[in-house]
Specification:
Number of domains of chain A: 2
Radius of gyration of chain A: 25 Å
Oligomer: heterodimer
Shape of chain A: flat
CATH topology of the largest domain in chain B: D-Maltodextrin-Binding Protein, domain 2
CATH architecture of the largest domain in chain A: Orthogonal Bundle
CATH superfamily of the largest domain in chain A: MetI-like
Largest interface: A-B, 66 and 68 residues
Distance between the termini of chain A: 55 Å
Structural class of chain B: alpha+beta
Strand content of chain A: under 5%
Distance between the termini of chain B: 58 Å
Structural class of chain A: mainly alpha
CATH class of the largest domain in chain B: Alpha Beta
Largest sheet of chain A: none
Number of domains of chain B: 2
CATH superfamily of the largest domain in chain B: Periplasmic binding protein-like II
Number of strands of chain B: 16
Number of helices of chain B: 17
Strand order of the largest sheet of chain B: 2-1-3-14-6
Order of helices and strands of chain A: HHHHHHHHHHHHHH
């Protein structure tokens, strides 16, 4: 019997193909794992309550219940709540992106006594769970007469967010010092340097920051639930609490359909801005 | 810091832009928040209700605006928010609460308004028309069920009763329970074991679910059914070691151990019985009359659904408690009490009460509204007959004012799973529950004073 062996080039090509096949298989499996819950949510939104509770599990609906989406949309003022969510998310994302960039610039490019300690405190505040501050937060805003208004999101936006400050700080610290020095020689002050030189350079981080902040607010349940009345509340609160039957128990298929519609805006924003988002995360030194 | 002053116009421009952005964002909202279309607008007094979305539909709120000339503002019920509002001195005017477990808790802390003067002058909520279930909202400083009224139940069920699916009984050849004579808890569990269906180690049909409206109130109710009281006379301690409480606890642990129904160690992914029962995957469901609201919407399910009397313990009294009695109470510091009372009367005696009564989601709490309960279909007549007979056995199982039921339930959920899995004896469990719960009750009593 004659043993034939592949020429070295062909063997290498086969090895590359096999490696690629293994890689793609793993990637597809991981993607499936991550998309699984969302896929299940979509399927749940297309089933009847009986099918949703069936055992053995009905993976695919016998009859697709498209009307669940229409019902979920009409059962509550979906657009009204979505508008409220959008307004809050835009206010907060815009303001917090600007304020965090400003603070991040300070930490990256300016020197002052206690800067390191202040930065440590700032980072330390990221470890503080939101639940701890829930009660005093309500009391403060109630004393200021800001309960059931959107002013808390304006104030939170103007106060910068530690994680975003860190993101900007990392990015600004990586920009060449020559840029700053040239501007100083030309007579620019630090406000001008920030506004005219550093900020225009930071579009990737700006878009990453905006997306992150927008997603935080769009998905936040606790703050709107605590501070807003039902009529002024957001889609996150409405989706979580409004699809109930006469006994207050959740109607899971309508809730699932509403949840799918609820995440669509976030997915669209991410799809449109994903290049900037990825670039922002990679150029900030955070991966 | 190196000092390089910026050019004044740029600084101003930057500050103007930053401030402008902030102000524009806020001003765009008119300094306020945007409202979804609840249909509530216009002038008049405003009453704030802390309720759940299913308590009042936007249409009913709109109707209230028209009928009462009162603007109703709703906030979602949330205990953290309620405590924060009470602490801040600006509570809602009316708050949702579970009569069985909340009434004494808030009354003992002196944050609830006594409503007797309001009831005395009401022509809509007459005292002789109130169902005895409303006594859950009475508290005399020591015992629930006596003394001033602090609230009222919107509807109720006798929550130890259970529904059963005749098709699943037929399939396994188990006899239907009597419509008039209760089974014993032991018989109920035997039936559940015969009715459960499993395939490849998975439970495809639960034999029966028996979890009450919460573990703390369920065990209070089960102990009463065994002829005892879970709490000491002054409600400052639990005693799971008494023969009656031990019997009740032992039965519930047996129920969990044999895995015939959902429990902490075998949770139902649907989180409550409704969808599972609706999918013909639960032969018996420990829900009271209120589950009829769901069953009535599914004609095929209604045909095979029957309501049965609350089980009894061998040698125990025949009682049938209400573990909920959810309704509204008025905080003592409510700002708009008279307008709130008008809404209270409307909610419990007018359009919303009538809508609830005819919906089948609970028994009306005004006797005069009983005639509105669904009784057109044959199965509805059967359900009503059983329910009316059961009302004779209604009783109040008093709950402690010194702890929130969620706190006691949390302790139970932490300790009990070991006993449910057979890793701890019921006696040990009883001792550990006594120790942990009494510690919490002690702290609660210190707060009340």
């Amino acid at each position: 019997m004659t043993v034939t062996s592949l020429p070295p080039k062909s063997a290498a090509r086969v090895r590359v193909r096999v490696n690629r096949l293994v890689l793609y298989t793993v990637l597809v499996a991981v993607t499936g794992l991550f998309l699984g819950p969302f896929g299940w949510l979509v399927l749940a939104g297309l089933k009847s309550p009986e099918e949703l509770a069936a055992s053995p599990v009905h993976w695919l609906p016998d009859t697709i219940q498209w009307h669940n989406f229409a019902d979920a949309f009409h059962l509550i003022d979906f657009l009204g709540y979505a508008r409220n969510s959008l307004v809050i998310a835009l206010i907060y994302a815009t303001l917090v992106t600007l304020s965090s960039a400003w603070v991040g610039f300070g930490f990256a490019r300016l020197n002052a006594p206690g800067k390191k300690i202040l930065f440590g405190i700032l980072l330390g505040s990221m470890m503080l769970p939101q639940l701890i501050t829930l009660f005093p937060t309500y009391l403060i805003f109630a004393k200021l007469g800001m309960v059931d208004t959107y002013w808390p999101w304006v104030l939170w936006g103007l106060s910068a967010a530690p994680y975003l400050v860190f993101l900007f700080r990392q990015f600004f610290a990586g920009l060449p010092r020559e840029l700053e020095e040239a501007a100083i020689i030309d007579g620019a002050g630090y406000i001008q340097i920030f506004w005219r030189i550093f900020l225009p350079q930071s579009w990737p981080v700006l878009s990453a920051s905006f997306i992150i902040a927008f997603t935080w607010t769009w998905g936040d349940y606790i703050a709107p639930q605590l501070l807003l009345s039902t009529d002024h509340s957001t889609l996150a609160v409405a989706v979580m609490t409004t699809y109930v039957n006469g006994a207050g128990a959740p109607v899971a298929n309508l809730q699932a359909a509403a949840s799918v519609m609820y995440v669509v805006p976030i997915l669209l924003i991410f799809l449109v801005a994903q290049r900037g988002f990825v670039a922002g995360m990679s150029t900030s030194g955070l991966k | 810091m190196p000092s390089h002053a910026g050019a004044p116009p740029s600084r101003r421009r930057f500050l103007a832009l930053s401030a402008g952005g902030a102000v524009a964002g806020a001003a765009a909202l008119s300094g306020c928040a945007m409202q979804v279309s609840s249909g509530v607008s216009g002038s008049g007094e405003t009453v704030t209700l802390m309720i759940n979305p299913d308590d009042l539909t936007p249409e009913l709120i709109k109707q209230a605006q028209k009928d009462l000339g009162v603007k109703i503002r709703t906030v979602k019920y949330d205990i953290t928010k309620l405590i924060a509002m009470l602490t801040n001195g600006n509570p809602p005017d009316l708050v949702r609460g579970i009569g069985a477990v909340d009434a004494a808790y808030f009354a003992a802390r002196d944050v609830a308004e006594e409503l007797d003067p309001y009831f005395a002058r009401s022509s809509i909520l007459r005292l002789d028309d109130l169902d005895p279930v409303n006594d859950l909202w009475r508290y005399d400083g020591r015992t629930q069920g006596k003394g001033p009224r602090y609230g009222m139940a919107k509807d109720f069920s006798q929550d130890s009763m259970y529904w059963y699916n005749t098709a699943l009984f037929d399939k396994t050849g188990v006899d239907y329970p009597s419509e008039t004579e209760p089974v014993t808890y032991e018989e109920w569990l035997d039936n559940a074991e015969r009715l459960v269906q499993r395939k490849n180690g998975q439970t495809t049909v639960f034999g029966g679910s028996y979890n009450g409206l919460g573990k703390a109130i369920l065990l209070t109710s089960l102990t009463a059914a065994a002829g005892g009281n879970l709490f000491t006379d002054d409600f400052s301690q639990v005693d799971f070691s008494s023969p009656e409480a031990r019997k009740a606890l032992g039965w519930y642990i047996d129920y969990c151990r044999v895995r015939v129904g959902p429990s902490i160690i075998d949770p139902d992914p649907n989180t409550w019985d409704g969808p599972t029962y609706q999918a013909n995957r639960m032969a018996m469901s420990n829900c009271g009359y209120w589950l009829g609201g769901l069953i009535n919407t599914a004609p095929k399910l209604a045909e095979v659904s029957r309501l049965a009397p609350a089980p009894v313990f061998e040698g125990g009294p025949r009682i049938s408690t209400c573990q909920g009695g959810t309704g509204l109470w008025m905080p003592r510091k409510a700002r708009n009490k008279d307008a709130a009372w008008r809404v209270f009367e409307w909610f419990f005696g007018e359009a919303p009460a009538k809508a609830r009564a005819s919906g089948g989601w609970g028994i009306p709490t005004l006797k005069s509204l009983r005639s509105l309960m669904p009784a057109q279909e044959e199965h509805q007549k059967q359900v009503l007959k059983v329910q009316e007979a059961e009302l004779k056995h209604f009783s109040v199982a008093s709950f402690t004012p010194y702890a929130k039921w969620e706190g006691l339930e949390s302790i139970f959920n932490q300790i009990a799973p070991a006993a449910m899995r057979g890793d701890m004896s019921v006696d040990t469990l009883a001792r550990r529950l006594n120790s942990a719960m009494n510690e919490q009750l002690k702290r609660g009593k210190e707060q009340v004073g």
